[in-house]
Amino acid sequence: MVTETPVFAVLLLLLVTLLGVNTSITRMRLRIADGDGGDKRMTRAIRAHANALEHVLPFVLLLYFYEQSGGCAATIRWAGGLFLAARVGHAVSMLRGPFDLRRLSATLTIALEVWLSLALLRNLL
Question: Which pTM does this prediction carry?
Fold first, then answer.
């Protein structure tokens, strides 16, 4: 029975939704109907939203399958919490934060994706 993953799925997808709202607000504020209009603020908003979606959905699937395969609840909480922190840090840094935070957040994101993939594979074999 899945009990841990839905909490992280909700929080991570809420982050994606908030980034989508930010993209829409930025688009309205800058009066850009399509694309980025050549405006760096619009480009950052679009990429922050898209980048979150590109990583959140695969991670949630990995977390779900890991839990289904008998993964430890504490490990799910640990990995999910770190991933959530990494994605929030990455979004903040893409929109207006320091590049070093983006680099750290991106590295942590990828490390967690690879680690969870390997942990799931180990459980399945």
Answer: 0.94
Residue reference for tokens 């799925």: 9
Q: What are phi and psi of 55, to 5 degrees?
A: -105, -35
- The 3-state DSSP class for residue 56 equals helix
Q: What confidence tens digit (pLDDT) does each residue in 22-73 have? A: 999 999 999 999 999 999 999 999 999 999 999 999 999 999 999 999 999 9
- Taking the C-alpha atoms of residue 35 and residue 29, their distance in angstroms, rounded to an integer, is 14
Pick the CATH number of 5-124 from 3.90.550.10, 1.20.120.550, 2.30.30.40, 3.60.20.10: 1.20.120.550
How far is Cα 95 from Cα 44, in angstroms, rounded to an integer? 6
